[in-house]
């Protein structure tokens, strides 16, 4: 009876998860959707607690500990650090699966083949997700490791070897679980090492792909745990997350015009041996004060934010500038490239934090056809995603990548610290175009100067 | 008897798995790119469903201290995943606002608070 009730509640919880994802399709219903999904989770937890014979004491300890840490993390994290936060959350989900798999094997070494295969998968996927996410976090924070790809000779061979041992070990372990604790330990250790190995060759600018992929893994780890426990709800929920990660990974790869294999195995730096076409011409710097005069006359302005906006924490002051431009009668839009920032949708969250209404956030495909009617396109901390070489220069490493056609605007402002190249290490010919003006300096300071000019003008 | 039950259960679960993947792909394809970050943290919170496994691993392994330790750790991690994930997603989604129906207000100082 009890078991039937628990399973009925599990079905309700699964439906809530599905509806929660479905209603994510619009910013209007999204918040409500998240609450629905959270309620589903609460139901699932309550139902599980109804299982007969549970010892509650330690469950409560873990729950309180996790709740405190989770609340602190969620409330303290800055919007600019959201990729790191999601990486760590992925990692903790992966570690949980890893530990559940371990505990399940430790408690009952002899189990059916289905259970041992699932245990192997939970530990393997969970372990890779855990260390991979921690590595991704460290790369994003540039803590201990550089954000650049780490590549050494024989890397792919070594990785293939580790993977081969893991698979062979997994097969032997699944067939003979009882006598093979040391093999199980080897599998655990190798899984953890493999997680590190797969993330280190990936560069900072490719992080959106990695985070999406780890998101998918964390779901798959949950699914594997579901197979261990023969729990349908875990399988449904885990698969939904796994699918979401797969889709996002696909979108990110498409936006970079690269295959997943290329992102994972070839560390972007390595491909840059052949240099793009030599660029001739001179960049034309302009002072913020002169830029103001052009902005003041503009009827239509498009901002193109990139990761540099997050680094400079310039989102609030940018919104302020946007407000002044609107008051001045200009149409203001923010054009967002799918891979701008360090995770899918990163820029949208930053701008939403600064109270930019979401109607002004436009996707690349909707803004590009209108670019020729735009008076000023202001590129802030973005580089490769506006490089016109991607359209025509077949020798460029980013050739074929869809870009925001900033160069088609009547005037282009580039806010940049120096002439240094972007993460892909490629010269950007846009900087030398006839209609381009460079505004050197810290993006935040530059925009502040522009805002001050508008304030000044409003007073007089 | 044991193996036969196993095979049937396996097929059922794999069936469920495959259908769920397709359902997930259908659902997620409809999410606009502006919501991709909250989608990620939100779906990530759903992957915290491992908490169910953690509860069972903690509460149903009497007599093994080692399993209890693993269980508590798993419980803590899964709870961080769930609580942190949903909370941070809500924090983000709260910020997505539509343009007010009235004329654009000029309150440029409002953005500086956070």
Arrangement of strands in the largest sheet of chain A = 3-2-1-4-5-6
Total helical elements of chain A: 17
Q: Return Rg of chain A in Å.
A: 25 Å
Count of DSSP H/I helices of chain B: 4
- Greatest interface and its residue counts? A-B, 122 and 92 residues
Helix content of chain A: 55-70%
The N- and C-terminal alpha carbons of chain A lie at a distance of 78 Å
Oligomer: heterodimer
Please state roughly what percent of the residues of chain A sit in beta strands, choosing from under 5%, 5-15%, 15-25%, 25-35%, 35-45% or over 45%. 5-15%
Describe the structure.
- The complex is a heterodimer of chains A (460) and B (114).
- Chain A has helices spanning 2-22, 27-49, 57-76, 82-107, 113-141, 155-175, 181-199, 207-229, 232-255, 260-265, 288-297, 307-312, 315-327, 346-353, 364-367, 389-392, 443-459; strands at residues 300-305, 331-336, 361-363, 376-380, 411-416, 436-440.
- By secondary structure, chain A is an alpha/beta fold.
- Chain A has 3 domains: 1-76; 97-270, no CATH class; 288-459, Rossmann fold (3-Layer(aba) Sandwich).
- In chain A, strands 3-2-1-4-5-6 form a 6-stranded parallel sheet.
- In chain A, helix 5 (113-141) packs parallel to helix 7.
- The N and C termini of chain A lie far apart (78 Å).
- By secondary structure, chain B is mostly helical.
- Chain B folds into 2 domains: 1-30; 33-95.
- Chain B is built from 4 helices and no strands.
- Chain B has helices at 2-29, 36-47, 50-59, 65-95.
- In chain B, helix 2 (36-47) packs antiparallel against helix 4 and helix 3 (50-59) runs antiparallel to helix 4 (65-95).
- The longest helix of chain B is centred in the C-terminal third of the chain and has 31 residues, at 65-95.
- Chain B is flat and about 60 Å long.
- Chain B starts with a helix and ends in a 19-residue tail after the last helix.
- The model of chain B is unreliable at 102-114 (pLDDT under 50).
- Chains A and B meet through helix 1, helix 2, helix 3, helix 4 and helix 8 of A and helix 1, helix 2, helix 3 and helix 4 of B.
């Amino acid at each position: 009876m009890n078991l039937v009730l628990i399973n009925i509640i599990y079905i309700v919880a699964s439906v809530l998860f599905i509806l929660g994802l479905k209603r994510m399709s619009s910013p209007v219903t999204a918040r409500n959707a998240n609450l629905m999904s959270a309620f589903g989770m609460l139901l699932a937890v309550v139902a599980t607690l109804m299982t007969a014979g549970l010892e509650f004491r330690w469950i409560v300890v873990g729950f309180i500990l996790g709740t405190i840490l989770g609340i602190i993390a969620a409330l303290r994290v800055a919007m600019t650090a959201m990729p790191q936060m999601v990486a760590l959350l992925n990692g903790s989900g992966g570690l949980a699966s890893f530990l559940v798999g371990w505990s399940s094997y430790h408690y009952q070494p002899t189990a059916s083949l289905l259970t041992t295969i699932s245990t192997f998968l939970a530990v393997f996927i969970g372990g890779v997700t855990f260390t991979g996410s921690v590595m991704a976090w460290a790369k994003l924070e540039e803590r201990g490791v550089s954000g650049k790809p780490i590549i050494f000779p024989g890397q792919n061979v070594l990785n293939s070897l580790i993977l081969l041992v893991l698979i062979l070990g997994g097969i032997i372990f699944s067939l003979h679980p009882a006598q093979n604790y040391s093999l199980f330990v080897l599998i655990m250790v190798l899984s953890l090492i493999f997680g590190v190995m797969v993330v280190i060759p990936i560069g900072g600018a490719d992080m959106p792909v990695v985070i999406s992929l780890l998101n998918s893994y964390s779901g798959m780890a949950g699914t594997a745990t579901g197979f261990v426990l023969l729990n349908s709800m875990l399988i449904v929920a885990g698969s939904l997350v796994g699918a979401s990660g797969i889709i996002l990974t696909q979108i990110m790869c498409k936006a970079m015009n690269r295959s997943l294999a290329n992102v994972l195995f070839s560390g972007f730096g390595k491909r840059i041996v052949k240099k793009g076409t030599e660029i001739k011409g001179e960049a034309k710097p302009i002072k913020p004060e002169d830029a103001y005069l052009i902005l003041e006359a503009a009827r239509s302005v498009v901002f193109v934010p990139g990761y540099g906006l997050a680094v400079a924490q310039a989102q609030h002051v940018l919104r302020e500038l946007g407000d002044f431009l609107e008051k001045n009668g200009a149409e203001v839009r923010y054009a967002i490239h799918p891979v701008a920032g360090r995770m899918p949708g990163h820029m949208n969250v930053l701008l939403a934090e600064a109270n930019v209404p979401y109607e002004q956030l436009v996707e690349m495909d909707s803004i590009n056809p209108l670019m020729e009617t735009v008076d000023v396109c202001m590129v802030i901390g973005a580089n490769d995603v506006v490089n016109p070489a991607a359209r025509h220069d077949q020798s460029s490493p980013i050739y074929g990548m869809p870009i925001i056609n900033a160069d088609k605007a009547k005037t282009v402002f580039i806010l940049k610290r120096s002439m240094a190249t972007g993460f892909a290490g490629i010269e950007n010919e846009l900087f030398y175009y006839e209609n381009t003006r460079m505004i050197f300096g810290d993006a935040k300071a530059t925009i502040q100067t522009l805002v001050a000019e508008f304030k000044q003008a409003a007073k007089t | 008897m044991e193996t036969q039950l196993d095979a049937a259960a396996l097929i059922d679960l794999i069936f469920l798995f495959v259908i769920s993947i397709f359902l997930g792909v259908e659902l997620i394809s409809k999410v606009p790119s502006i919501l991709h970050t909250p989608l990620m943290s939100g779906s990530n919170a759903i992957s915290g469903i491992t908490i169910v496994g953690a509860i069972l691993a903690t509460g149903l392994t009497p007599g093994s201290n080692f399993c209890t330790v693993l269980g508590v750790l798993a419980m803590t991690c899964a709870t961080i995943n769930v609580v942190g994930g949903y909370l941070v997603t809500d924090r983000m989604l709260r910020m997505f606002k539509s343009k007010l129906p009235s004329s654009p207000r000029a309150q440029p100082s409002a953005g500086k608070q956070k």
